[in-house]
User: Fold this.
Amino acid sequence: MKTLSAIFRYGTILVACAGIFLMSRALRAQAENQPIVGGNPPVMPPEKPYKEAVAATGILEALSENVAIGVPIPTLVTDVFVKVNDSVKKISHF
Assistant:
């Protein structure tokens, strides 16, 4: 019984030392690898076709109520003819 206890005790110490040794080798090997220096991307990103543009992701929340905004046909909105706090009327095109 004493022999089994001694083997277990010294075996765990040996396994712990081996783990520390292997971890130090792994960290040394990782430190030797130099990071890739950033350069030009392989493909240049496309240039935007407009002089000024706004793009965003997320949710836009109104202060008082949700307002549906849209266009009658699917297309790119290039001009908005109202400003903040302008009074507007609903016009039905259909």
User: Anything to note?
Assistant: The mean pLDDT is 79. The CA atoms of residues 61 and 67 lie 9 Å apart. The helical segments are 2-32. The longest helix spans residues 2-32.
